[in-house]
Write a structure and sequence with these properties.
Elements lengths: L1 E9 L16 H12 L8 E2 L8 E11 L5 H11 L4 E9 L9 E11 L12 E2 L6 H8 L4 E4 L13 E12 L2 E8 L6 H13 L5 H10 L14 E8 L1
Parallel strand pairs: 3-10, 5-6
Antiparallel strand pairs: 1-3, 1-4, 2-3, 5-9, 5-10, 7-8, 8-9
Protein name: tRNA pseudouridine synthase A
GO molecular function: RNA binding; tRNA pseudouridine(38-40) synthase activity
Function: Formation of pseudouridine at positions 38, 39 and 40 in the anticodon stem and loop of transfer RNAs.
């Protein structure tokens, strides 16, 4: 049995998220269909580093799968791409050890969120959140500091009965380039909607609707109070997944 690791990029605009769902177009579904054309007699299931939601993009998402098919590692890239639609592209492919797991071997992830303070652009609307108003960048940078370190982020994510909501954020940077604001978040893991809630809260600070102290109260409540501000999915990118 061979374990193949792939790095994949995709435009999430026309997908109902990454994970396979009946009757909906998904990234996982399209990739598995492509691999099925190569490994005809095998039932292949890919395992990703994590799921992305509908309209969320992946720059360097990682997945792996096991197959009996023998092929040089770089040929997997060319073979899978041959059968993929033009909004998904395999960047690279590797033969890896059976101990490698796309999700459990990951040490940290980096997400980017892009927002425009400029006039509305129909060309950017699927890729950059069209906010259209000025934000106080320094206020957001100052507020972002409270998220650094290990915290219980239950107030900033979707919570189920199985999930641990304690995560460590190593870095949050906020850059403004001619009205395009990029939030860069690096952490050891992110729960569902966590990045969008964190960015949503910072946007509220940047618009002077709430204060840094209010965000601190939300964190300290450990889920008793919920962040009601969730940034739109279109501006979110899974930028990189890191391994040892």
């Amino acid at each position: 049995m061979n374990r193949i690791k792939c790095i994949v990029s995709y435009d999430g605009s026309k997908f109902h998220g990454f994970q396979v769902q009946n009757q909906f177009r998904t990234v996982q579904g399209e990739i598995q269909k492509a691999i099925k054309n190569i490994c005809k007699d095998e039932s292949i299931v890919i395992h990703a580093s994590g799921r992305t939601d509908a309209k969320v993009h992946g720059r360097r998402q990682v997945f792996h799968f096991d197959t009996l098919r023998e092929m040089p590692e770089k040929q997997w890239k060319r073979a899978i791409n041959h059968f993929l639609p033009n909004d998904i592209y395999i960047i690279d492919s590797f033969l890896v050890d059976e101990n490698f797991h796309s999700r459990y071997s990951a040490t940290k992830k980096e997400y980017h969120y892009m927002l425009s303070m400029n006039d509305y652009s129909p060309f950017e609307t699927n890729y950059i959140y069209q906010y259209g108003k000025e934000l106080d960048i320094e206020a957001m940078r100052n507020a972002a500091k409270i998220f650094i370190g290990e915290h219980d982020f239950a107030s900033f994510c979707a919570v189920d009965q199985y999930g641990n909501t304690i995560r460590t954020l190593y870095q949050i940077e906020i850059e403004n380039n001619q009205g395009i604001v990029t939030f860069k978040l690096v952490g050891n893991g992110f729960r569902r909607y966590m990045v969008r809630h964190l960015v949503g809260g910072l946007i509220q600070v940047g618009s002077h609707r709430i204060t840094k102290e209010f965000l601190e109260e939300l964190i300290e409540s450990k889920g008793q109070k919920k962040c009601l501000f969730k940034a739109k999915p279109q501006g979110l990118y899974l930028h990189e997944v890191f391994y040892k």
